[in-house]
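Field reference: sequence -> structure
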Amino acid sequence: MSEKPVLPHQNRRHILTVSVFLFAALAVCFILWSALGKDPNKVPAAMLDKQAMPFSASWLQGQEHLAGARPEGFRLDDFKGRPLVLNFWASWCYSCRAEARDFEAFWQRYKDRGIAVVGIAIQDTPEQAMQFARTYGKTYILGLDGDDGKAAIDYGVTGVPETYFINKRGVLIHKEAGPVTTEMLARYADELLKE
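Structure field:
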């Protein structure tokens, strides 16, 4: 019994199919390889180097740190002309615990140099947020995002913690997704104070 001869058009179809498969496999490998060197916590902010989005939050604590504090809460305009470190956090967030004491130490070090530190708790209750603040010794301005989560939505928060560094002109100079460190806070404080 003889083998069936391979026709030229079947050879071309086979070569084309293999070529397409190899090209697709190489493309997937390139995409995966290029993503390996990137830190998933370094999410670029769409509003980087632009005016920070207005926000408002109801008070948890820290009214004494803001001249002319309104009883209903605070907003971005209250910090006009001051560098601002804005941190979105939650009492249920494990990573927020890792950075809590670093933020307090940063606040104690830089509060007399004009940098405002503000924490806005999201998807939290006032009681749980305040218990967290007491546990970690937070003394800076803390607020609670409303039930609608508008501040977090407007800032594009995808998870907590996320921290935004806003210069005294109201321009967002850096966004950090994930917990910050003392060294990182100091580095961006220097940039905020240069202005």
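Note: DSSP finds five helices and seven strands in the chain.
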